[in-house]
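Late entry, evening session. Most of the bench is empty. Finally got around to the prediction I had been postponing all week. Sequence below, unchanged from the version circulated by S.P.
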Amino acid sequence: MAFTDMTTSKQDLAGVLSPVLTPFNADYSPDPDRLIRHCRWLLQQEVGLAVFGTNSEANSLALTEKRRLLDALLEAGLPASRMMPGTGCCALPESIELTRAAVSAGCAGVLMLPPFFYKNVSEEGLYRAFSTVIEAVADDRLRLYLYHIPAVSQVPITHGLVQRLLERYPGCVAGMKDSSGDWNNTRSMIEAFGPAGFQVFAGSETYLLATMRAGGAGCITATGNVNPGPILELFKSWQAPDAQQQQDRLDATREAFAKFPLIAAMKAAIAWKSGRRDWLTVRPPLVNLSPGEETQLHERLDAVGFDLPGAGQLA
C-alpha cells in the first residue's frame, strides 16, 4: 500500500487523555456498564479516552474482552473521535486485529506499545513490527501513536526508529506518548519531530506545563481518571501567570496517589467518593489497597484538597 502525507487531514487529539480505568466485577470480569459511565464522565470533563492503556490493566485483558468493551462503548453512543485505544500486543496478529477494529470504528488514533516480551531487540526488529501492523491494516485513516514506556516494557522507542517510521509512513505515524519520565527525552522528541506535525504527549501531568511550553500536544495521564478538571485547566491556561502554581497543585495530588500502587489507589479514590465499593477490584496479579492503606490514601488526598466532582455518576 502506498502511503502519502495525510497530516493536514488527521484529527487533532491535542489536549488531555486518560488511560481509562477498567472496572471489574467480583469474579474479575469487566463491567461494561460502569466503564461506559466512567467514559461519559471523563468526556464531560473534556478528557479523551485512551482505553486499554497501562492503567486500564490492558495487558490483563484478553483480546476478545477488549473487542467486546470497545463495541459496548460504541453501541452506547460514545464518540470514536475522542478515543485512542491501546492496540499494541506482544503477538502481531492481535495488534493487527485490534488496530483494524479501532480504525474501522472511526477512532481518532491508536496508542501502540512495541512488542514487549523479548528484550534487547534491534531497531530493525521494532521497525518491522510497527510496519507489519501498518501494512496489514492498510487504511489511510490509521493514526498511530507510539507508546514509549521503557521502565515497564524494557523496549525503548528511539529517535532513529521514529525518524524511520515517519519517513516511510508520513501522517500515519502521528505522534507518541512519552512515559519515560525523562523530560530531556520528551523535549528532544518535540524538538526533533514536532515541527513536522508529530504530536508528543507527556505520559504524566507532572510534565504538562513543560510539555506545553516546549510545543507539545498535551498529556495522556493516569490521574486524568480522578483529577481531570485541574489537569484540563492547566492545559487550557498554561500561558497564564499562575500556571506554575497550577502545576504545583497537580504535582501534590499526583504525589499523594503515587505513595500507593497507582491503579489500586485511583480505584480506591473512586470507590471512596462514589460510595461503590466494587470499584476497589483490580484483576490479579494486582491487588487492591488494604483498609489501612485506604485510610492513609484518604488522609493524603484530604490534605491536598482532592475532590471528585460528579462522582455519583460513577456509582
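Two things to note before I forget:
Residues 1-10 have pLDDT under 50 and may be disordered.
Residues 256 and 297 are 7 Å apart (CA to CA).
Will write this up properly tomorrow.
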